[in-house]
């Protein structure tokens, strides 16, 4: 190569450009990874603390992070719910939560799930402050509407998932509950409201029949919000910690702790009295005790833990 050949003079330039380009690529990659791993409720940095870190673990969690749940669609855009959580705390509405001082532990979870209109204000020490997902029965929507500012006006990022029969949730203008939800979105555009699809409702009925041997409709049963909450949690949570839920034998135990049915309704009917009333109703009752026996079965094959009171899963 002759001394007049310009290529040798360009090599240092190419090298410098290559270094700059690679530096930019690395910087952008680190920034994107940091954003992904620090977003709540996806606590994906946990393996750095007390656990070994692996590429396989990262890939698995990134897959879960964008997991789509087609059984729940947004109002009114009909987009599927996308959510995954490492540890979910499900907070029962039971009076069992009173005096437990579990709020701090609950708030440390990746995601916190609550039901219907159960409030946190005034009960933070026992039930916590955070709410990631609130699962709501169609019959409880009017209760939320009575305190719209409290539930929908706060910029807290809570996701609302409403379940109910097609007659109330239909979207052709004749679904009374769906119409209410559309109005909420108009009043509070930032609200994140999803409805359970008809297919998902049928699936929950199917699971009830498979687990109990009873057709829900023929047996005159209504599934509880707790049922829909746990079915959802088993899809979107790696581990589940349930607070304040009694097991199927609790109300037959001597000296059981008598508490109000709801922790936020002092003086309401005793929890066990409510459970027994519903379990024995010929029609229109929630089969709370039957459902708890199914939950105990699920806990044998899923990472489900119960506290206040604790369950002995054998």
From TrEMBL:
Alphabetized UniProt keyword annotations: Disulfide bond, Glycoprotein, Glycosyltransferase, Golgi apparatus, Lipid metabolism, Membrane, Sialic acid, Signal-anchor, Transferase, Transmembrane, Transmembrane helix
Pathway assigned in UniProt: Protein modification; protein glycosylation; Glycolipid biosynthesis
Record field: catalytic activity: a ganglioside GM1b (d18:1(4E)) + CMP-N-acetyl-beta-neuraminate = a ganglioside GD1alpha (d18:1(4E)) + CMP + H(+); 3-O-[alpha-Neu5Ac-(2->3)-beta-D-Gal-(1->3)-alpha-D-GalNAc]-L-Thr-[protein] + CMP-N-acetyl-beta-neuraminate = a 3-O-{alpha-Neu5Ac-(2->3)-beta-D-Gal-(1->3)-[alpha-Neu5Ac-(2->6)]-alpha-D-GalNAc}-L-threonyl-[protein] + CMP + H(+); 3-O-[alpha-Neu5Ac-(2->3)-beta-D-Gal-(1->3)-alpha-D-GalNAc]-L-Ser-[protein] + CMP-N-acetyl-beta-neuraminate = a 3-O-{alpha-Neu5Ac-(2->3)-beta-D-Gal-(1->3)-[alpha-Neu5Ac-(2->6)]-alpha-D-GalNAc}-L-seryl-[protein] + CMP + H(+)
Enzyme superclass (EC): transferase
Record-annotated membrane-spanning stretches: 20-38
An individual GO BP term: oligosaccharide metabolic process
A molecular-function term among this protein's GO annotations: alpha-N-acetylneuraminyl-2,3-beta-galactosyl-1,3-N-acetyl-galactosaminide 6-alpha-sialyltransferase activity
EC number(s) recorded for this UniProt protein: 2.4.3.7
Stated family: Belongs to the glycosyltransferase 29 family.
Protein's name in the database: alpha-N-acetylneuraminyl-2,3-beta-galactosyl-1,3-N-acetylgalactosaminide6-alpha-sialyltransferase
Provenance organism: Acipenser oxyrinchus oxyrinchus
Gene name linked to the record: ST6GALNAC3
